[in-house]
Each structure stands twice: as structure tokens, then as C-alpha cells.
Amino acid sequence: MWGKEQMEALTTLKERMTQAPILIHPDFQKIFVLFTDASYVRFGFILAQERDGKEYPIAYGSRRTLPTERNYSVTDLEGAALVWAVEKNKHYFNTVTPIIIVTDHKALATWFTQDLPENCRRARWILKMNQYNFTIRHRQGRSLAHVDYLSRNPINKVSFQEDPNPWEEILPEVHKFIRGELNTEL
Questions:
Q1: What's the rounded Cα separation, in Å, for the pair 115 and 105?
Q2: CATH code assigned at 110
Q3: Within a domain: residue 186?
Q4: Domain coverage including residue 50
């Protein structure tokens, strides 16, 4: 039921989404901060930079995990999310500008300080990441609620109006054809 409370929430949302800063333009002279998270449902990231002592987002992203990724260990799942997030944002990164990657999975930090593992997937990810100037920082999951939301709450479809069902136009013709009432000769 749409009431006063919902209308107030919509008005507040419209106001906040139209006031700066929602997204900022990147400053390629400053450090990028990439927050990543993974769940067995989705990967999520937020790319941000610090300005005037506050972090402001540059880009957001989220995607469903693939069926094969749902079989990964938690560490590999978090690693896949990290590599995917860097790949999605590689146009912002160069070999000079530092990137701080923030994750709630502490084991990822050790991947890049050891010899290449025998696990081919992890070795491939490490080699891919070596082209970037990055450090990995661990933060407790509670302090990553913003990116955690992107990895745990799937949005299947965004629509502002009801899409017409294409079958509603086709089905009457199909039923006529089945009953032999439709002339199909050209």
C-alpha cells in the first residue's frame, strides 16, 4: 500500500540522488580505493577516492556468480571478486597510481606475498594483478556494509513501467493456428 511514509521516502531519495556528490570524477593523481566483496550469489565492488577527508564513490558494480564460481572455496570466491572488480575498473588504473583494495577476507593479502601457487586459477589471477600498483587491506565485514549490500542483494530487473508481455500478443494467434482457424498461406 502506497502511503505518506512511502511518498516521503521517495521524495528523500529523489533529493539525495540529485544532490552532489553522488559520483565524483576520478583524479588520476590520487589513490584509488576499491572495496570488494563476494557471496555465493553475487560479486560487488565500489571504487572510491578520498576528497577532503571523506570517501566518495566513482563507480559501483555487481554481478551474479557463475554456476562454476558457486563451487569455489570462500577464498577463491573472494579472489574471483577482487580480480573481476579490478578488470571492470582497469580503465581507471595505470601502473603508477596506487590502488588500495579493501576486502573482508584476510587470506587474500597473503596471496601476493608468496611464491606462485600450484593452483592454476590462483596463479593466473596473481599474474594478472601484478600489472597494477596495489596493496590489500583487511577490514571487518561490519565496516564494509556498503559493498556487502551489492554482493548479497540481487536486483534482477530495474523497470519504471510495466513491460507488456509479448506472449499476450502472440498466444491468440498460436491458438487460432492450432485450431486451424488461421490462414497461413501467403
A1: 20
A2: 3.30.420.10
A3: no
A4: 20-152
